[in-house]
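Weekly sync, protein design subgroup
Attendees: M.S., D.O., the rotation student, P.L. (late)

Item 1: inverse folding check
M.S. brought a backbone from last month's batch and wanted to see whether the design step gives back something sensible before we order anything. D.O. pointed out we never logged the input encoding, so this time it goes straight into the notes. Structure tokens as presented (74 positions):
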């Protein structure tokens, strides 16, 4: 469980999110949205204009313009 990075999008933004993403090896592009309670595993890339839905578990990259509303398992 220590390897999971939990985002609460309304709290973590700007510099705080940048630091956490860097520490956990998560890449973010531009225009993305990460909604409340999403869990993103280390090493995942969130593409340009991608949306990660509330409560999603993201185990692999979310491509550009893609919406990840479902729970995605490895």
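Designed sequence read out in the meeting:
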């Amino acid at each position: 469980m220590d390897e999971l990075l939990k985002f609460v999008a309304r709290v973590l933004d700007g510099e705080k999110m940048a630091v956490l993403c860097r520490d956990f090896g998560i890449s973010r592009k531009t225009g993305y949205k990460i909604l409340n309670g999403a869990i993103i595993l280390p090493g995942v890339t969130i593409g340009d204009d991608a949306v990660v839905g509330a409560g999603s578990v993201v185990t692999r990259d979310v491509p550009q313009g893609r919406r990840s509303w479902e729970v995605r398992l490895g």
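Discussion: The first helix runs from residue 14 to 24. The longest strand covers residues 5-6.
Action: P.L. to compare against the previous round before Friday.
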